[in-house]
Design goal:
Layout lengths: L1 E6 L2 H5 L6 E6 L8 H9 L3 H8 L9 E5 L8 E6 L8 H17 L4 E4 L9 H15 L4 E6 L1 H8 L4
């Protein structure tokens, strides 16, 4: 499996090539939307915020939502996965969320995905890296993973073996 790192932000999102899905993680307490979810919501003119306000999707654990990008990104579709309460994010709940996302994406026959590993301010980089390696990558059966990453996580990914 090809795993690459891309910068966080609109520049990183715009640099994604040959990626057929974007996977976002949204917590029940994520208001306003942080990180990549906020950038995507901005580019989609508040579509995700309106869905959250309607209560159709709230970010609870095991919630999932599929949105089209309508050509606003090179990536055609966005899978939004509920994270539960971000303030209570622990290594085990992060692993569960990543494994669940990998399974959902595999069932949807996603071959290449971009995602930001949640927990940047709550969990150590080594924990986030391990959760990606041990939970998401084994559950996702596609061929390419583009990780939208801060500098430390990008450094760990560049040194990744296998």
């Amino acid at each position: 499996m090809n795993v690459s790192a891309h910068e966080l932000g609109l520049g990183g999102l715009d640099s994604l090539a040959d990626v057929d899905a974007l996977c976002l993680f949204v917590g029940e307490d994520d208001r306003p939307l942080p990180g990549t979810a906020g950038y995507v919501d901005w580019r989609l003119c508040g579509t995700l915020s309106r869905v959250l306000q309607s209560g159709f999707f709230v970010g609870a654990q095991d919630d999932s939502l599929l949105l089209p990008t309508d050509g606003r990104f090179s990536v055609p579709r966005v899978f939004v996965m509920g994270l539960g309460r971000r303030r209570g994010l622990e290594p085990s709940s992060l692993g569960e969320a990543l494994a669940s996302a990998g399974k959902v994406l595999t069932r949807a026959r996603v071959e290449s995905v971009a995602l930001e590993v949640p927990g940047q301010d709550a969990l150590d980089e080594s924990v986030r890296f391990s959760a990606l390696q041990e939970h998401f990558l084994p559950a996702f059966r596609g061929r390419k993973v583009a990780v939208l990453a801060d500098k430390e996580l990008a450094r760990r990914l560049s040194g990744r073996k296998g």
